[in-house]
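Review form for a predicted model. The reviewer records the input and the model, then writes brief findings.
Reviewer: anonymous (R2)
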Amino acid sequence: MKVGRTLLVYPVLGISSVLSGSAVIAMVRAGDHDGKYWWRAVVQPWAKNLIRAGGVSKVEYLGDRAALEGFRGVIMSNHESHFDPPALILASDTPLRFMAKESLSRFPVFGSAMRAMGMLFVDRSNKTKAWESIRAAAETLAEGKAVLVFPEGTRSKDGELLPFKRGGFVLALESGLPILPIGIAGTGKVLPPGWVVRDTGAAVLAVGEPIPTEGKTDLEALMAETREAILKLRDQARVRLREIEARRS
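Model under review:
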């Protein structure tokens, strides 16, 4: 357990989220609705400072990271840690719109900033509201933006993939837009589910090939295909992470 890191990361999170969130809100009100400036100038520095304070020494990328730039479709990744969203933010120089749990919208300033950025909130305790979120995400896709979904719906405690939720796949099928699979390794070692930093080290993101959905109708088959792709990418990321750790030891 890294007590010092744990005590550091949450003040950094709180203070930086208020300052960065306020800046984003001001920039959106000034007319930067699409993130031409606030994504690189505010959001990416926030993400970088947060994961560094938390003990992620670096984020390395495998595969075609450029596929994220201007991607129009649904991005899907495994979910091991609170540090997954910041790592994904750093992966793309164009804004991503996350589907996030509804409770985040209630954080002062931070929640308002997320709304200003076009983030989408899902209330999984209410099926009607959850499907309303899917419809809002469909509108975001129709505007030519990328939507990022963690199909497990929550963080995995042991790093193994949890069963996938259907919503993101319904979204992909109905839009006819591709799914971009990503595998993450390392973030869960640093900050596993919970709030205590356990270690320091690198994180690795492996970006896969887009999975087309146009013309497809079989939801279960699409879920299985995407799951297999994310598993392979996560395993590739783990192999690279072990290489990095071996050099460090």
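Findings: The chain has one domain: 3-248.
Further findings: The longest strand covers residues 56-63.
Recommendation: see findings above.
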